[in-house]
Specification:
CATH class: Mainly Beta
Order of helices and strands: HHEEEEEEEEE
Number of strands: 9
Strand content: 25-35%
CATH architecture: Beta Complex
Radius of gyration: 14 Å
Shape: globular
Largest sheet: 6 strands, antiparallel
Distance between the termini: 39 Å
Structural class: mainly beta
Length: 135
């Protein structure tokens, strides 16, 4: 599927730090409880660190105590792309940026968190950039 933002691999390597590249372009996972936004309570919009697309808002961020930022819903339904992931001997649902195809994390359902959607978008901090709300 073509993305609105497509770049050759060499360009992604230049534009992203090695850690950003590993997560966003190679689907790595940052270590739990190390990300800059894991415990952030700042109000604002979280965008894709690779292309700048708005992905999540602080209104849907919640404490899951899993080690990564968790959201119960994307900002817009078409902001993210969900793909079946059968790596590591598990069946999971990968979350990618719908604009550039960058790996963001995974979404889980039915874990019993008291959220409106019963979903947990478990997203790598390094895949996001927070634009704090003005005011």
């Amino acid at each position: 599927m073509p993305y609105d933002v497509e770049k050759p691999d060499e360009q992604w390597r230049v534009e992203l730090s090695p850690g950003e590249y590993a997560v966003l372009r190679q689907a790595a996972t940052e270590p739990a409880f190390t990300g800059e936004y894991t415990d952030t309570k700042t109000r604002g919009v979280y965008s894709c660190r690779a292309c700048g697309a708005d992905l999540f808002t602080s209104d849907t961020k919640f404490e899951s105590h899993c080690g990564w930022p968790s959201f119960f819903d994307p900002k817009d339904t078409d902001a993210v792309e969900l793909i079946e992931d059968r790596s590591h001997g598990m069946v999971r649902t990968e979350v990618r940026c719908a604009r550039c195809g960058s790996h963001l994390g995974h979404v889980f359902e039915g874990e019993g968190y008291p959220t409106p959607t019963d979903q947990r978008y478990c997203i790598n901090s390094i895949a996001l950039r927070l634009a704090p709300e003005e005011g």
